[in-house]
Design a protein that fits this description.
With 206 residues, the protein is α/β, with parallel strands linked by helices. It has 6 helices and 14 strands. It has one domain: 3-Layer(aba) Sandwich (Rossmann fold), CATH 3.40.50. The strands form 4 sheets. Strands 1, 4, 5, 6, 7, 8, 10 and 12 form an 8-stranded mixed sheet that branches. It binds 1-O-pyrophosphono-5-O-phosphono-alpha-D-ribofuranose (PRP).
Amino acid sequence: MALHLVDHPLVRHKVGLLRQHDISTSHFRTLANEITRLLTYEATKDFETEKRTIKGWAGKVEVDSIKGKKVTVVPILRAGLGMMDGVFDMIPGAKASVVGFYRDEETLQPVQYYVKLAKNIEERMALILDPMLATGGTLNATINLLKDAGCQSIRGLFLCAAPEGIERILTAHPDVDLYTAAVDEKLNDVGYILPGLGDAGDKIFG
Ligand code: PRP
């Protein structure tokens, strides 16, 4: 499917604040969740609604209601946890599936250490959460894991993404939609995004 750059002025402003080198843990967490609410708004734009009739203050009234869309949020440990509340603010009924990967600093390969998926994941749309999409190794492994579990509808939400990672994922998984608050310039020679945000996990967890 596609890359969606969410470049609303509020998002661009908040990403600018995130880049401040001495940002506090508390401010980074607040901004990460605020941006995630806006990413969620964009990533759910095509959800179908259906009419239902309720009793309002002046009698019967027809209202819109989300049609049969079941969602599982998939934060990638650890940094993805820093975006989870932002999705739950918008979709309180979403279930959580948690996957744990760390990136080997030498090989840059993802190493899996935890998986706990929501029940009936094959019936749900997965919203993967990770502040950073760098080489794309971690995201690629997460998408493969979800597809192996039967998940048929997958979207990813990111605060900051590198062109290298975006291209890798869109080539390997053209059926997946990526929503990012920023597309940065490139990766440096140790796999960090430039200009980037620094180590998002360290910034969120302190
Ligand atoms: C970071 C980030 C992604 C991954 C991106 O996690 O949160 O999960 O690296 O890199 P990639 O696209 O090259 O795979 P990190 O390994 O720092 O773990 P953490 O979230 O536990 O801090």
